[in-house]
Amino acid sequence: xxxxxxVHNLSQKINLGSAVLRIMLASVLFPHGAQKMLGWFxxxxxxxxxxxxxxxxxxxxxxxxxxxxxxxxxxxxxxxxYFSKVVAALIFMLFIGIFLTHxxxxxxxxxxxxxxxxxxxxxxxxxxxxxxxxxxxGGKFTLSTLFKKQ
Length: 150
What we know:
Blueprint lengths: L1 H37 L6 H12 L4 H20 L3 H19 L18 H16 L6 H6 L2
Helix pairs in contact: 1-2, 1-3, 1-5, 2-3, 3-4, 4-5
C-alpha cells in the first residue's frame, strides 16, 4: 500500500512538471512564431520571414515554411496539450538545426551587441525542455487526455 501511494504521488508530480514544461515552452516559443507568421512583436510577418529564409539563409521553400509553421502552430498545440510528444519532437528537430547554426557565436546570447550573433544558450534550454516533453508527455490539463476519457 505504501509503495502504491509513493508511485501515485510521483506520477502526480511528473504530470504537473510535464504540464509546466509544456506551458512554459509554448509561452516562450509562441512570440517567435508570431513574429514570423503575423509580424507581431516587431517581426517581419510571413512574407518577410519566408523571403529571409529562402533568399538570405538559402533554405528551400518547404523547409522555410516548416520552420514558420512549427514555431507558430507548435506552441498553440503545446499550450492546449494536443499531440504534445509529436510537437515536442518537431521543435526538438527544428532546434537541433538552429543550435548548429549558432555554435560559432559562442554560448551566450548577444545581450550587448558585441558578438557576431546570438549564442546557443536559449537553444539548449528549448532542446532540453522538448526532450523532457517527448519522454514524459504533456502532463495534466491537456486536450489529449480530455479526448481519451470520452
